[in-house]
Amino acid sequence: MPVEMFRNLTLVLLVLLVACMPAPKAPEPPPAPQVVGEPKVIALRPFGLLADNRPSTVAGLATLTSYSNGQTLLELSLANLPPNLSYAANLRLGTCSNLGQVALNLGSVFADGRGVGKGSTRVPTSQIPTERATVVVYQRDVTDPKGIGGAIACGEL
User: Fold this and answer.
1) Which domains are seen in the chain, by residue range?
2) Are strands 86-95 and 71-79 parallel, antiparallel or unpaired?
3) What's the whole-model pTM score?
4) Is residue 100 within 8 Å of 93, Cβ to Cβ?
5) pLDDT digits 0-9 by tens, 82-119
6) 37: left (phi over 0), alpha (psi -120 to 50) or beta
7) Which of 4, 14, 76, 122 reaches 20 to 30 Å from 32, CA-CA?
């Protein structure tokens, strides 16, 4: 058998061998975090005065869902907010009648044109206080858009 024919045959066999090999598998993605326990739902009730000095009628829910990756999703859903504005929220130690220091900043809640607001944030579960704590929603200070005004909704964990 001539050498050139032998090389061509070897090349064809090598190509066929490589073509028949299974493709390498992509690494398995890590499993998605699983919910741990039941979500905790807290009623947020009207609290304090609105910027125009009317009593607050803002109410809603705060839902805390813990996950196996050590994170907790905190979702806020509110109604009766003055429309088209942004509100601040935090988790404080204490009760609605005796607010303590801020434990966690929960970000902003944005009210649509109907006064319905939603917001969510993920925090390490280890940062959620195990002692008495309260979710508080604040109106923005009208004189300082980055500042926080008075509390308008509150709910105890």
Assistant:
1) 40-156 (2.60.40.200)
2) unpaired
3) 0.76
4) yes
5) 999 889 999 999 999 999 999 999 988 999 999 999 99
6) left
7) 76
